[in-house]
């Protein structure tokens, strides 16, 4: 019986080690060769929260110009803090365990961490949410956003934090800038021409720019344009928005940058692939 238990423990340890190694490899590969135009946002979520809410918040942060890495495990989060060096962390669903983890992270002797973070409340009762807010703010959170305040407050807080770190990003070489998009002033330039672009198209263009050469599906475009509320989009709505964006690009001399990939979606290809920030 004793040998049987020892064998079970040994097998479980092997499974845990195997899973941990695979997780580290996945995270390592995920953060390799990323273009510098992204605002790196670590999204630490409570695994018990509604997945639809998690995905909706993740999409909102992407629309605000973020490259999101979502984790629900503190070990994985610490690995990303050390290796990926996120600029902002969004904690979705506060707990005492998360507070303890942040405290340990800040007091670590092995490396210095000065990571700004905001906390999004969950559906706790009012008295508990007040306690969570006090705990998070005492732990150093830049803001505690109750669930009832909505996504606008969240993206505004995160964008504000990122804007203090990031500058406008441009694509080009030497002194010739092909593309420049500024998430702080919400302005965009193509081939030196400023685009006077509506809000929805600005976020769509920003997504295309931050995902160059990637085929973006119509479903993803719908999510970007309508905050994940696909029921509000008519069948021809995407075609109209793409047409409007192409018209703006055409007026700036860059119509060919956005191409249709029949049967899949659309792809944005900058004419020059050298990327710099200034």
Commentary on this structure:
The chain is of the alpha/beta class. About 45% of the residues lie in helices and about 20% in strands. It folds into two domains: about 30-165, Response regulator (Rossmann fold, 3-Layer(aba) Sandwich); about 170-275, Orthogonal Bundle (Arc Repressor Mutant, subunit A). The protein has a five-stranded parallel sheet with strand order 2-1-3-4-5, with helices on both faces. A five-stranded antiparallel sheet has the order 9-8-7-6-13, covered by helices on one side. α1 (about 1-30) packs parallel to α3 and α7 (about 200-210) crosses α8. The longest helix has 29 residues, at about 1-30.
SSE blueprint and pairings:
Layout: H1 2-30, E1 39-45, H2 51-63, E2 66-71, H3 74-83, E3 88-92, H4 96-106, E4 117-120, H5 126-138, E5 143-145, H6 150-163, E6 169-173, E7 176-182, E8 187-190, E9 193-195, H7 199-210, E10 215-217, H8 218-226, H9 237-251, E11 258-261, E12 265-268, E13 275-277
Summarize the structure.
Helices cover 45% and strands 21% of the residues.
Strand content: 15-25%
User: With helices defined by DSSP (H or I, 4 residues minimum), what is the helix count?
Assistant: 9
Cα end-to-end separation: 67 Å
How many domain modules?
2
| Low-confidence region ranges | 13-36, 167-176, 272-278
CATH first level of the largest domain: Alpha Beta
Q: Give me the count of strands.
A: 13
| Oligomerization state | single chain
Helical amount: 40-55%
Question: Which structural class is indicated by helix and strand composition?
Answer: alpha/beta
Q: Which radius of gyration do the C-alpha atoms yield?
A: 21 Å
Q: Supply the CATH superfamily name of the largest domain.
A: Response regulator
| Mean of pLDDT | 75
Describe the strand arrangement of the main beta sheet, using strand numbers: 2-1-3-4-5
* General shape: elongated
Label the CATH architecture of the largest domain: 3-Layer(aba) Sandwich
